[in-house]
Each structure stands twice: as C-alpha cells, then as structure tokens.
TrEMBL record:
Name assigned to this protein: Epiphycan
One Gene Ontology biological process: bone development
Annotated spans, Disordered: 67-92
Signal is among the record's keywords: yes
CC terms in the record's Gene Ontology section: extracellular matrix; extracellular space
C-alpha cells in the first residue's frame, strides 16, 4: 500500500512539471534547433570551405594585395550635349571661314615658310605656294605683288592682273635670283625696281605691255622681255655692256629698229624676231680692229621677221660660229 501511494505522488509531480509554461517553451526551442541544426551545419561548412579556398588563393597569388578602398571621386564631369546641340555645333564650325594662322619665319611650327601677311591678312604662303625658297603665285588674279618672304630666291607671278611693278615690291630682297611675271597687264616698271637686287640673275617679263625696260643689275644671266612694246627709246644706252655673265637675251615681238649693242662676249643666244630692224653694221658682233677675234659663245642669233637683208653685210658674221637666221635677199 505504501508503494502505491509513492507511485501516485511521483506521477502527479511529473504531470505538474510537464504542464508548467517554462518547460513547454524550452521544448519548443529544443524542437526548433533540432529541425534546423543540420541545415545550419551544412551552410556553415560551405561558408568555411569558401573562406578557406579564398585564403588559399591569396596564398598562391603573392601579387594580390588587400588594401583600403580609395575614397570616391566627386569631381563629376559636366553633362554631355544633346545630339541636336552637337549637330548645330558641327554646322556652325563648317560655316565659319578658315582663318589664316601667321607663323613667324624660321619658327619651325609647320615646316613651311608662311611669309609676311598680305593686305588681306593672309600669309603669302597660304595665298601662294611656297616650296623651299621658291614662291609660286601663278593664276591667282593678283593685281599687285604680295609681300615676299625675305629668304625667297625664285618668285613666280604668272597669269595674273598685275599692271605695274613698283620699287617697293622687291625692296631688300637680297637673295632673289629669278622674277617671272609672264602674261600680266604690266605697262610700266619703276626705274629702280630691279637695280637694288644684288643676286638677281633672271628676269622674265614676257607677254605684257612694257614699253621701257628699267636698269638691271650686272649679275643678269637671262632677260626675256619678248611680246611687249619696247621701242628704240625703251632700252638704256649700252644697257647690256657690263653684264659679263649674260647668256640669253630675248626681245622677240617688240618695236626695236636696231640691235642693242654692245653685247657681252658671254652671250649665247640673241632672239630679235619680228621687230623693225632694218640695218646691221659690220661691227655689230665682230671687232674690226682685231681680225683674229672670234665670238665662239654666240651660236644662236634670230633676226627672222625683220626687214633687214643679211646678205648686205657679210663681214658682220666672220667672227661668229654660225650665220644669223634671217632674210638673205
């Protein structure tokens, strides 16, 4: 009987314990941990494995460094223009005229001699074409000589509208060797336009309306004033006498009525076709005081188209290597 009473008391105590709130809450927590324990363990193992692999990778790549992240850059660029604005800007730039940039001589900025500015504000070597020390201003409808770079040696202004050559056009051009102004409307040339050029050797002024040739330096080797209006008074007396290096003298299609003597011994070619030369003297080319004198250089004399009869003065050619070309009757 005593054993039965103890069993009942123990049973009631156990029942009371299970019925208490604290025990039921702990049972719920135990149940929750049991149901999620396996998942957490697996995730934790995966995370640990990833961390292990990452640390192993750091160990295998010694070039990789872990540092602080740099601060963000807050200097944001300005917002770009819209497509319409960009198109308008391109059209504006295309409509704007090109502005010449003046480059000082010898500056090395472009490798091309730009030269001084013309009256229109454009450097000569943008208006013309400059190749080395040669300046080409051909067929540009020029009515005046543009400023020429001081280093110029050869100047060409053919097929333009020039009407006059001024002394200032070639002032201080100490290196200028050749001037070619073929086929313009030049009717007059200042007297000192060429005489102050110490290096000038060649002047081509053909196909113009020049009636008088100015004084030329003694350094000349070629003079071509063909197809002009030069008459007897248009050439200085003994204009070519002191030109010891003169090789070519071309005065074709003018109004000359005489051969402009004396001519230097250096002369090789003399063209006087279609002038008004009516007579020739025996000492025009030869020296009557020295019958042994021979002018070997002068091999080309053109007198055709003149009213002179070459057969009337046979002694005038005895010192020449060839007889002049012209009428013999």
């Amino acid at each position: 009987m005593e054993k039965l009473v103890r069993f009942l008391l123990a049973f009631l105590a156990l029942k009371a314990t299970l019925a208490s709130p604290r025990f039921s809450r702990q049972a719920e927590l135990d149940t929750y941990d049991d149901t999620n324990y396996d998942v957490d363990i697996e995730n934790l193992e995966l995370e640990n494995q990833d961390m292990y692999d990452y640390e192993e990778g750091l160990g295998e790549n010694p070039e990789m460094e872990i540092g602080t992240v740099p601060p963000p850059d807050h200097s944001y660029p300005s917002p770009g223009a819209s497509l319409e604005e960009e198109e308008e800007e391109r059209e504006y730039e295309e409509e704007m005229p090109l502005r010449a940039k003046h480059v000082q001589q010898g500056s090395g900025d472009s490798g091309v001699l730009m030269g001084p500015n013309t009256q229109k504000g454009m450097p000569t070597c943008l208006l013309c074409t400059c190749l080395g020390t040669s300046v080409y201003c051909d067929d540009l409808k020029l009515d005046s000589i543009p400023p020429i770079p001081k280093e110029t040696t050869h100047f060409y202004a053919r097929y333009n509208r020039l009407t006059k050559l001024h002394k200032s056009d070639f002032a201080f051009m100490s290196k200028l060797k050749r001037i070619d102004v073929t086929a313009n409307d030049i009717s007059s040339v200042d007297e000192g336009a060429f005489s102050t050029l110490p290096a000038l050797e060649e002047l081509v002024i053909r196909e113009n309306h020049v009636s008088q040739l100015p004084a030329l330096p003694v350094t000349m080797t070629l003079i071509d004033a063909s197809h002009n209006e030069v008459d007897t008074r248009g050439i200085h007396k003994e204009a070519f006498k002191d030109m010891a290096g003169l090789l070519y003298l071309y005065l074709t299609d003018n109004h000359l009525d005489y051969i402009p003597v004396p001519l230097p011994d250096s002369l090789r070619s003399l063209h006087l076709q279609r002038n008004n030369i009516q007579s020739m003297h025996e000492d025009t080319f030869c020296n009557l005081q020295d019958f042994n004198y021979i002018r070997n250089a002068l091999e080309d004399i053109r007198l055709d188209g003149n009213p002179v009869n070459l057969s009337r003065t046979p002694q005038a050619y005895v010192c020449l290597p060839r007889i002049p070309i012209g009428a013999l009757v």
